[in-house]
Amino acid sequence: MEKAINTEINSQLKLNLHRQMLRIRMLDEKIVDLYAEQEMRCPVHLSIGQEAPPVGVCAHLCPDDYVMSAHRAHGHYLAKGGNLKAMVAELYGKASGCTSGIGGSMHLLDLEAGFLGAVPIIGSTIPISVGAAWGAVLRHESRVVVSFFGEAAVEEGVFHEAINFASVKKLPVIFVCENNLYSVYSPLPVRRAEGHEVVEVARGHGVSAWQADGNDVVAVYSLAKEAIARARAGMGPSFLELMTYRWREHCGPNYDNDIGYRTSAEFEEWKKNCPILRIEDSLREDGALTEELKLQVQTELQTEINEAFQSAKEAPFPEANKLMENVYAS
Amino acid sequence: MNRQLKFWQAIHEGTDMCMSKDENVHILGLGVPDPKGVFGTTAGLQEKYGPDRVADIPASENGMTGIAIGSALMGMRPILVHQRLDFALLSIEQIVNQAAKWHYMFASQMRVPLVIRMLLGRGWGQGPQHSQSLHSWFAHIPGLRVVMPATPYDAKGLLIASIEDDNPVIFLEHRWLYNITGSVPEELYRVPIGEARVLREGKDLTLVSLSYMTLEALRAAEALAEIGVEVEVVDLRSVRPWDSRLVCESVRKTRRLLVLDMSWKTAGFGAEVVAFVSEQLWGVLQSPPRRLAFPECPVPTSSALAKHFYPRAIDVAEAVSEMLNVDSALPLLNESTDQLLDIPDPSFTGPF
In this complex, is the C-beta atom of A168 within 8 Å of any C-beta atom belonging to chain B? Predict the structure, then answer.
């Protein structure tokens, strides 16, 4: 897939962004379809509904730049150029998985693509991202590092420690917060005082911060372009708060709008606000997306995805002697 | 090999040599470039290598550990310094969930060549939160290496080995060892991680110790020799991995085992040594193996109480005598020097 680095916002770019978001959506939908087969035997935190932040931000990154994420990493992994086949094999616990079956969905990695890792402890990759940026600076390597996390990570002490250091050292880190309003089932008001906005927290640490509609991939793209350019120019870290919404349950393939922590009505509103529908509308206005083209893109993506799942199902599991390998580096 | 260095000087020298040899080695920690230079161990290094490679940090132990991990992932070789192990407890998540596991979890694609130096406090009223040695916690974690040198020679050699190791190494330095003197070669040398050393040979009992307790073990061994009891003092030097082969070899010879731990007895490192030796040498042991450790309470601050907390050479010698059914006439150890019990040596006048 071609990278749209610093391109003007035209139909070509929008088609590219659309395709990447659709790829994430369709992959996670396939997980939804097959999860009940119980062959993907690990927790999955799906990116459905939150495709715009990873795609809009990663559009400005090359393989030498790094991205880190947390439990909800499928979108970040794919948008950064992570190998789709290897990711699916990893979900199936196969030896050909991106971390050889050891990590699963919650610990994805693709070094070649610059996806530096994701772990499911909230906030933990944020200081590691800052350290990677610092290490790059110490080594005179020109990279930027993007740290993706949810708004609950801003409640963790380690977030503040990390962003403070990035601010002190003016490191080339972009902190991208996907605020999807819920931390598992806990709504914002039990976690954050009214009027105490996430974006203000970042500003309080001396970091330039912006807030945007996280379901408008073009807006995300524009904001990220600015933030990443600043980092590359040595102007230090930035923080983006992107408002978005998770469609499925926190962990797993199902909908859970009926168990009481949020309403179907709220979900339906956000569903209308789908990032993919919105870019499609924009493209239709440009006259750049016909039903024929859309079907062609979907078919190509579905073929790629189906092949990845078929291949994963057929791939061998790791051998028993792999259990004790790699506890230590030699 | 007659050049004498103090323990803190040996750490300084090992650090300096590694930084000179490899530009990827860098140090970070609270107070690393300050006038005290972490009790001399980092003194002058910032002047020599600059503020990027010798960095002071915000009071953010957890964040800075993650940051050090990130730097290590990039190919740097960070040394993170905590002036007390107790402060590092804020960063247990990064040490245990992240540093220890990244190489395994990511199927060898990532490595974390991070050294975390932690000082172990004692005395001068350090109290409950400036005196802990939780080596058994770290020793429990696959993916970590844990070392505790007891001599200046081992301090330099183990530090160099730790810096060169591609795994996260917890490097534990006892504050009371800082001013002891020993022979230290001038050149760059390594003490392999995971190797113990017999410091004194003996046939009657194997006395396993680590860190500061090794000094007490040697004092006890000298006094016991006066009454004809020869204990073999084994200094572990590393607790993960630990040299079970050497310890078993010694116990095969002496048939008795006393382990001196440097923390609480329950679920402490002594339990690991006793369990392992019991499993391997059940038929060989002449008497039940024992552990000498700290009482089950936090360390009190008042020197009047702290003096009842730490086992001393006399306690070690008495335990050995009991195990060997020997009348413990140990005149040389009848210490009445109460005022020295909360300082490492007479030159120490506090405060930290």
Answer: yes
